[in-house]
Amino acid sequence: MDHKERWWKMGLKAVSEGKLAVLLLSGGQGTRLGSSDPKGCFNVGLPSGKSLFQLQAERILCVQRLAAQAMNEGSVTIHWYIMTSPFTDDATGKFFESHKYFGLEADQVTFFQQGTTPCISKDGRYVMETPFKWQSRECLFSRQFAKSPDGNGGVYTALKSSRLLEDMATRGNKYVDCYGVDNALVRVADPTFLGYFIDKGVAAAAKVVRKAYPQEKVGVFVRRGKGGPLTVVEYTELDQSLASAVNQQTGRLRFCWSNVCLHMFTLDFLNQMALRKTASTIWRRKKFHLFMVIQWV
């Protein structure tokens, strides 16, 4: 508890100094929830009728107030960067406008779009939006390909192409709290997590939740090889015998720490990843165009 109290105070101090930005991954639609609206618009069934966006905005407001009180500041502002997609951007912006940004200032919220990637069928074929015949070279690169958001991993190139990493630096942000939208319990801008992160002096960190049972459909953190790097293995890639394996010393599942998309990054780390991802994306696009030309020929 002594450590937690110290981390809490460290986190609030960093927030009051404007060192923390919040990054929301919100490019998906609520199709699994039975809605075509952005996931953040979803009403989770509370008596208040609050949406996910509102719950998260109010938690930012709360941390701002706590930081101002703790440091005797007049006011504290946490900038909120919200990643949308071409399929959710307009609806997300209108939702925030219609709800007056849930009490936040409009200029402390920045929307930006992630990229898209062509949809591929299980047998490796590119999916077309409409029935299509190869008639000309120009058709190869038309908008006939069905596309979908390029996933949470697209955040790095999206931040770079939107020049928002520079924007964060200009605002004095050094740390970025990153999370997924579909989490009603998320502690946005958690001061304890931020203080812990600063105290450990690391470039990236993640919160984990213990798996409820062996077949729970969550990715898990594992160490690849003795002394190797920590990484995430998705539940679809984890052999059932490994998923059920028990650590005899602890009595817990051997691979029990699930990835619930709650991360903390330094701004330097995001810049490094953006450079790597941008180079990788350019190479993939060149290969895609080359492949389509070969197919056409």
UniProtKB/TrEMBL annotation:
InterPro entries: Nucleotide-diphossugar_trans, UDP-sugar_pyrophosphorylase, UDPGP_fam. Its EC number is 2.7.7.23. Keywords: Nucleotidyltransferase, Transferase. Pathway: Nucleotide-sugar biosynthesis; UDP-N-acetyl-alpha-D-glucosamine biosynthesis; UDP-N-acetyl-alpha-D-glucosamine from N-acetyl-alpha-D-glucosamine 1-phosphate: step 1/1. GO terms for molecular function: UDP-N-acetylglucosamine diphosphorylase activity. Gene3D superfamilies: Spore Coat Polysaccharide Biosynthesis Protein SpsA, Chain A. It comes from the Eukaryota. It is an enzyme of class 2 (transferase). It holds the Pfam family UDPGP. One of its GO terms (biological process) is UDP-N-acetylglucosamine biosynthetic process. It catalyses: N-acetyl-alpha-D-glucosamine 1-phosphate + UTP + H(+) = UDP-N-acetyl-alpha-D-glucosamine + diphosphate. Belongs to the UDPGP type 1 family. This is UDP-N-acetylglucosamine diphosphorylase. It comes from Gossypium darwinii.
